[in-house]
Hints:
70% of the residues lie in helices and 0% in strands.
Amino acid sequence: MPGKSYDPTDRRPIASRERKIWQRLAAFLAERGVSPNVISMAGMVAGIVAGGLLAATSIAAEAWLQRGLWLLAAVGIQLRLLANMLDGMVAIATGKASPLGELYNELPDRVSDVAIIIGAGFAVGGLPAFGYLASCIAVLTAYVRAVGKAAGASDLFVGPMAKPHRMFVLTLVALAMAGMPQEWQPQWGAGGKAGLPALGLAIILVGGLWTVARRLARIVRHLKGTV
């Protein structure tokens, strides 16, 4: 008797999955036997590179080079998100969805989050302490979701600072830093070292704590309903 196929029930709701261009790309990859796990790892590489590019803006000597690094970092962040979406689509299309695939999906995600957020902390206009704190909160939001899933709770992808929201904030920051004249860029703090990247990280910090609180509240309601 053939084994029962694995059906992932805890998928992040992403409207972009319904767009024809991504469905065709997923079908293209599936037809050529590209492994969903390879796509997951490629997304992690894109995230690590994006984090490195963000950090490198603080040592770029020329303004044009700094702008180029910001722009490439924004592209890297979006490629990371694209890979995160496509790995699941390809897994479903090829019938290769599995618990192991979920592991490949989750762990690279956490590495990417940490690399990008800490990279933003070391970027020009960022604050390393904010980067470290925001990365911890990002991991905590995912941890709480995993705990809730293990407890049987559902619909735990709520924000306001889930993964797509965090990456949206940092993409906006990177694009603003790439295109905004330096004299327009806000600066504050000792020596004017803090700027838009620090503000973006502060938003991720506050929004992340709110997200943790909302997810915990849903888990508590679920557990009380099972008593």
